[in-house]
Specification:
Chain A has ten helices and no strands. By secondary structure, chain A is an all-alpha fold. In chain A, α2 crosses α3 (30-63). Chain B has a domain at 36-45 and 78-236: P-loop containing nucleotide triphosphate hydrolases (Rossmann fold). The two termini of chain B are 34 Å apart. Helices cover 36% and strands 28% of the residues of chain B. A six-stranded mixed sheet of chain B has the order 6-7-8-3-9-10, with helices on both faces. A four-stranded antiparallel sheet of chain B has the order 2-1-4-5, covered by helices on one side. The chains are: A mainly alpha, B alpha/beta. Chains A and B meet through α1, α2, α6 and α10 of A and β5, α2 and α3 of B.
Amino acid sequence: MTQRARVPRQQPLSWRVIVRVSLAGMQRRLMRSIVTVSCVVLALAFLSYMLVLADVTEALVALNDAALNVALQDHGVDIYAETQTDPMTVLLIGLALLTCTVGIANSMLMSVTERVREIGTLKCLGARDRFILRSYLVESSLQGLCGAVVGILLGCLIAVVISAITYPGYVARAFPFLPVMRSIGLSLVCGMVIAIGASLWPARVAAHKRPVEALRVEE
Amino acid sequence: MADEIIAIRGVTKTYRMGEQEIHALRGIDLTIRQGEYVSIMGPSGSGKSTLFNIIGGLDAPTAGEVYVEGCRLADLDSDQLAWVRCHKIGFIFQTFNLVRTMTARENVAIARMFAGIGYDQACVEAEGVLERVGLGHRLHHLPSQVSGGQQQRIAIARALVNKPLIILADEPTGNLDLRTGQDIIDLLNEMKRSLGITVITATHDMKMISASDMLVRIRSGAIEERLNKEEMDVSIGTIDGETVA
């Protein structure tokens, strides 16, 4: 028992090291990163487009301008509705986000399968489960952040440009800064949650691989 | 004995494959002293790799005990085993097993980082070891950009960077041609001499065996023959009629 106390425990790596290692890995596995990132970009562009469009439309309805109301109704907007997000839209957004989550999880699982040997080797070198788990999570949150930022910019831009073209002059007059900021924040949170949530399971699969089995896998 | 670095006592390993029990190891007793160069020989499926995994703390024996530096591996939890692997043991594989997305320097430095050294310092130390194995000019190459022999050198640098007591090399020359294989053997030998590292290799390579202090032959999970250096010189010449280089 005295011997047991003599051997120290392997200490975890600092986050700084993990981030640098993950960043280097992402750069060199660029194609796989791009697949994950573009999943997030597409889903988040759709989400933020829908949210911002609803914000802008609500602000336009609130203007209560006669000519504008006619134009709004011409475009199928229910100006008497309390909110411009109907259940169908919510369902669509939900489906898009779900598809995105599954896409990321799939891409991450493939990356785990590709790297089984690598994970086994790292464990031989003294990596603990936590290092593998954390480096996967760091990787996916960075990818989530990149994808979310690009997707949100894209979605907002399209929403604003389309409504500015459809209702010329009015959008600038009644641009709903606060609600749009809130929608952007919500989208960002959604993006991160999706990216991290989708990779939790693959990351656990990777971290719990036993080195003996991992090393036996043929490349 | 004070210089006993690895002691294996009555180790057995049984795998269960459905109804069938497979006895990978059937009672191995082996003592390895500090600074020895031990070759383990045996046909594939003889239990060599299982023995390696057990010495390296990657797999637990079904029965029996393994001591590394007088410390019983069965007493350690997984974090302590990780510490032992990181600080005391260097692994070298037949298939090199470098991380494909990391440069030579990063592949070596990551092992140093696991020992708690910061990123920049680990890179500096990795450069030093890579220079030592003759790869000072390949620091920023990816494994796919260098030859097999050079990849194995990177792997050796990685195994050495934490100044281990033991190197476990599972057929390190198995994927290399004769000439590069010889270079790797010379390199391991030099490390053994200059750093006093205990080298344990599994091999079929006659040149490797002639360089070793002890030869252990394993067949169907048991030690069939154990020869020290003097005994070997006589018997090796007769193995399958191969001549020793």
